[in-house]
Amino acid sequence: MKTLHIVNKSPDQARFGRCLAALEASDQLLLTENAVIALADAGIVLPSENYALAADLEARGLAGRPTTTVIDYPGMVRLTADADRIICW
Amino acid sequence: MKTLHIVNKSPDQARFGRCLAALEASDQLLLTENAVIALADAGIVLPSENYALAADLEARGLAGRPTTTVIDYPGMVRLTADADRIICW
Amino acid sequence: MHSQTAFTLVITGAPYSTQAPQTALAFAKAALAQGYSIDRVFLYGDGVHLSSALAAPPSDETNWPKAWAEFLQGNDIPAVACIASALRRGILNNEEQARYQRNASNIIEPFELLGLGEWVESIASTSKTLYFHGDH
Amino acid sequence: MHSQTAFTLVITGAPYSTQAPQTALAFAKAALAQGYSIDRVFLYGDGVHLSSALAAPPSDETNWPKAWAEFLQGNDIPAVACIASALRRGILNNEEQARYQRNASNIIEPFELLGLGEWVESIASTSKTLYFHGDH
Amino acid sequence: MSVLVIIDQAPYGSWRGRESLDMALSLAAFDQPASLLFTGPGVNWLRAGQEPAGLSQKAVERNVSAAPIFGIEELLVDRQSLAKYQLEPSALIAGTSTVDYTPELLANYYHVVCL
Amino acid sequence: MSVLVIIDQAPYGSWRGRESLDMALSLAAFDQPASLLFTGPGVNWLRAGQEPAGLSQKAVERNVSAAPIFGIEELLVDRQSLAKYQLEPSALIAGTSTVDYTPELLANYYHVVCL
């Protein structure tokens, strides 16, 4: 079962850690809203396959981060449509 | 200046840590609402002079903790009236 | 070709307090544009404030309840605010206004007040259910 | 003998979402009982929902807007909901209802819609200002 | 397969836990299998001896205790969080099962809700 | 002495930062000295190059940049949080002062607000 985890919380929140602790190797992680600042957080180790919403990155001055796959809202729709299961943290 | 710090957040929130980091030795700490569970949290070191609201302790099954001074709402009023400065976290 | 996938969107974050209604609307528009359908939008917890007809933001800010209402009506998408969440938080339709003897109702069309059974129905269906939460 | 201390209470957490209105009311009642005065109650951010006349909780739960309104009126305490926070969140008085051409107003007496200047006045005064926040 | 509702917030300070419980109870009421998992500060929901009368709130302890009667399949509690909040199994309300919060645990549920 | 408004939340995900900024601006408008301190995820308010058009929100960057013009005395930013979010001083909007978040810093303010 391929699970897509969508997290919108800032990485200083305990919920963010609970999301990371729930990830299996084959799972996907999508960062939305305040969660995108995790890409700039020196204390957070993200799985190598992670996605981040373009609009949220741009808003926070984080466009062009090399450690994520940037997707737009249509890309988010495709990820969710392809997932066997979705957990929204 | 004697500061009374009032914190109502659960100890797993970053704000709780920011409150503790702002305490001077002469300051007072009052735990209210979800913050009272800090008294049961093995990972939190509270200053020895701390207060907790009785109604919040009782609600959460934490009445009778020896490591705090239990006060009621009138006691909270007295603490605030006596403080030079109050910071609500 | 995408007709097999349909979404249910649950919004639990309030407008002007969280980004949830904005992210959910952008997602919903993109889903329809790609040929997917949206079975239902369900407001829960603080999310019910998205169904307020009285929100009056400054003219240079989006009126999120109005933007959502127009989107829902324009695309014939059923929209429900959880009645238990809504009544506590002061969102009433005419029927509840009468029952609780208040001076006004304030729910914006096409939102309806219904129970959690609507959400359960989505879970039990083949609809993919996504949650748009607040920031905490 | 306590007449020198007066409090301003700022409530930023919403009822039925946070404990803030409950803690603040218990504090306020205890303060008056001990002879202190309360200069003003100021609702800000999500706290403005405490001024909704339409909240209709189950009969075995406290109606927090009503409980607060009765306390404020019974003790002649000025009560303000920040107008900018309130308008965005769908709390209107008659004047704003007319200005924004809505079908209803929903603020409960004695709350008034006024600006942050009311809060600044408390900060600049000798009043002790306390905040009752949400849980996050 | 069943739905998992996760409660990771302390009780009484917010309504989120109650609203999570309402979701689980609604699933059960409509014959959809549902389980509850308490983790983080959420384990404090299970502490015996809660007396919230002073907060003008109803005790959640009773609601949780009654959950199995209303058809909730499991009351799961995260072992590590119990240790963190110094909760001995004997200090918990009856009927809970201690588990480890892992991807393998979550994989048992086709839908997961975390308000 | 001045009032300190602390912003410890990331921008755009919630309205709390904006409402904190409004408080600081109101103080300044009524000639009450006010300063802003950004800490935790709040330091991300100061990152240059914010483009929130895709969120249908106004840029907070401009509001913060304009704060000194409207009478805000200081834009303080916590050194440790800058490091955590890998923000070099050169990547910040202009006009900020880096400080250490300590009790001694907070002692300079007669009133502290943290929404």
UniProtKB/TrEMBL annotation, chains A, B:
**One short Pfam family name for this protein?**
DsrH
Signal peptide residues on this chain, from the entry's feature table = none
Q: Which PANTHER family match?
A: PROTEIN TUSB
Q: Name one GO cellular component term.
A: sulfurtransferase complex
Indicate what this protein is called per its UniProt record: tRNA 2-thiouridine synthesizing protein B
GO BP, one example? tRNA wobble position uridine thiolation
| InterPro entries in the record | DsrEFH-like (IPR027396), Sulphur_relay_TusB/DsrH (IPR007215)
Organism of derivation: Marinobacter mobilis
Top-rank taxon of the source lineage equals Bacteria
From TrEMBL, chains C, D:
Similarity-based family: Belongs to the DsrE/TusD family.
Query: Main site of residence?
Result: cytoplasm
Q: Which UniProt keywords apply?
A: Cytoplasm, Transferase
Output the Gene Ontology cellular-component terms. sulfurtransferase complex
Pfam families for this protein: DsrE (PF02635)
- Keyword Lipid metabolism assigned: no
Q: Annotated Gene Ontology MF terms?
A: sulfur carrier activity; sulfurtransferase activity
Q: What is this protein called?
A: tRNA 2-thiouridine synthesizing protein D
Q: Which InterPro entries match?
A: DsrEFH-like, Sulphur_relay_DsrE/F-like, Sulphur_relay_TusD/DsrE
Native organism: Marinobacter mobilis
Q: Which NCBIfam families match?
A: PRK00207.1, sulf_tusD_dsrE
What does the record list as GO biological process? tRNA wobble position uridine thiolation
Q: Where in the cell is it found?
A: Cytoplasm
TrEMBL record, chains E, F:
Name the domain of life. Answer: Bacteria
Output the InterPro entries linked to this UniProt entry: DsrEFH-like, Sulphur_relay_DsrE/F-like, Sulphur_relay_TusC/DsrF
Looking up SUPFAM superfamilies in the UniProt record yields: DsrEFH-like
Q: Which Pfam families match?
A: DsrE
Family to which this protein belongs: Belongs to the DsrF/TusC family.
Q: What is this protein called?
A: tRNA 2-thiouridine synthesizing protein C
Q: Which source organism does the UniProt entry give?
A: Marinobacter mobilis
